[in-house]
C-alpha cells in the first residue's frame, strides 16, 4: 500500500532541508521526482533521488510570482506524462517585532507560503481532474506543509503565522471540494526542525534551551523525520484521509 512505483511527485522547495528529504523519501518508495527550486540547483537532491534508481527533473521557478504557477505545471508536463503527487513545501520566513513588521515582508511571505500554494494546487488539481476524466489516472495526492504555528501564535513572525494558519484552512476547503474528484488533500505540520528557517532560533542560546525543554523527544527534528508520513500521505495507504493535518513534532503539542 505504501509503494509509489510509477508515480510522479512534484516537490517545491526541493533543494535543501525538508523538501530534499521528502523528495528522497518519495523516490525511495518508487516515485520519479520533479524538484522545483528558486536559486540554487538541487544537485544534492538529484543525487539522492537518482541513487534510488528514480528519475529526477529540476525546474526553476519563483513561487513569489503568482503568474508563473500555471506555466510551471505546463513545463513539468513537458517532462512527464502526468503529476500524481504534489508536495507544497516551499516557504520563507521574516522576523521582526509586530510593531515594526513591514508590508513588504508581509507580502513576500504570504505570496510564497500561501498564494503560491493555492495557485499551484489549483493548476495541478485541474490536471489531475482532466487525467481522471480521460481514464488515465485515479486522481492524485496533494500534501501541504503546515507548521506548529498553524496551531499557535508564536512571536515576531506575524506573516508566517498567518500564512501557516491559512495552509491548514486551505487544506480543509481543498479536501471538501476535491475528495469527490479522487484527490486527497492533507497536510504535515513539522515541529521545530533543524533547517535554515530555524537557524536563528538554534543560534539563540536562550530560545534554543526554551524550545528543547518543551519537546518531549528532547531534540530538534531532522528532515528525515518527515519521510515516512510524506510517503504515507502520497500512497494508497491514506486513500480515506481528507483534510487532515498530521503533526510531526516530537510531542511539542502534547505539552
Number of helices: 8
SSE topology string: EHEHEHEHEHEHHHE
The strand count comes to 7
Shape: globular
**Biggest sheet features:** 7 strands, parallel
In what order do the strands lie side by side in the largest sheet? 3-2-1-4-5-6-7
Kindly estimate the percentage of residues that lie in beta strands according to DSSP.
5-15%
Give the proportion of residues in helices.
40-55%
Overall residue-averaged pLDDT value: 96
Q: Uncertain segments of ≥5 residues (pLDDT<50)? A: none
Gyration radius over CA = 17 Å
Please report the distance between the alpha carbons of the first and last residues: 33 Å
SS-based class: alpha/beta
Task: Summarize the structure in words.
The protein is α/β, with parallel strands linked by helices and 255 residues long. It is 42% helix and 15% strand. It has eight helices and seven strands, in the order E-H-E-H-E-H-E-H-E-H-E-H-H-H-E. A seven-stranded parallel β-sheet has the order 3-2-1-4-5-6-7, with helices on both faces. Strand 1 (8-12), helix 1 (17-28) and strand 2 (32-37) form a beta-alpha-beta unit. Helix 1 (17-28) runs parallel beside helix 2 (43-51), helix 1 crosses helix 8 and helix 4 packs parallel to helix 5 (158-178). The longest helix is centred in the middle third of the chain and has 31 residues, at 103-133.
